[in-house]
Amino acid sequence: MPPLSDGLPISFSPVDQLAAEGVVRVSTDYNFLFNFNRIFMAAMWKREPLDKYHTCEKVLCKDIVVHMDTDGIWRLALTDDNPHVVVFRKLEMEQINAI
C-alpha cells in the first residue's frame, strides 16, 4: 500500500459489551476484525484458548515497522528507526455500512 493510503478497515470490539463506549481503552480485552472487501472476506484476530483476548496495554513507547519474518509472513514489530506510518481514522456509521 502506498504511504497514507486509505488502507484496510479494522474494527476494535470490546469483549465486554458494557465497555463499548466508542473509545479504545488501555487494559481492556478486544477482538480485532479486518474487513478485506477487495477479496470478499473478513478476518478476526482471535487468541486461543477462548478466555484469552487481545489487550491494548501501554508498556513500551516505540515506533512500528513492517517486517517479513523467516517464514515470509509480514508482521508488525517495534523499532527505533525507520517507522511505518499508521493512522487510525474513526468512520461515521454510514461510512461503515458502505464498506
Helix amount, in percent?
A: under 10%
Coarse morphology: globular
Number of strand segments: 6
Q: Round the Cα radius of gyration to an integer and report it.
A: 15 Å
Distance between the termini: 18 Å
InterPro entries: Kunitz_inhibitor_STI-like_sf
Architecture overview:
- This protein is mainly β and 99 residues long.
- The protein has one domain (10-97).
- The protein contains one helix and six strands.
- It has one helix spanning 93-97, and strands spanning 10-14, 29-36, 41-45, 54-55, 63-68, 74-79.
- The strands form two sheets. Strands 1, 2, 3 and 4 form a four-stranded antiparallel beta sheet that branches. A two-stranded antiparallel ribbon has the order 5-6.
- β2 and β3 (41-45) form a beta hairpin.
- It starts with 9 loop residues before the first strand and ends with a helix.
- The mean pLDDT is 66.
Features:
99 residues, two-stranded antiparallel sheet, 1 helix, 5% helix, 4-stranded antiparallel sheet, mainly beta, globular
Give a quick summary of the entry.
The protein has one helix at 93-97; strands spanning 10-14, 29-36, 41-45, 54-55, 63-68, 74-79.
Could you outline the blueprint of secondary structure elements for this entry?
Elements lengths: L9 E5 L14 E8 L4 E5 L8 E2 L7 E6 L5 E6 L13 H5 L2
Antiparallel strand pairs: 1-2, 2-3, 2-4, 5-6
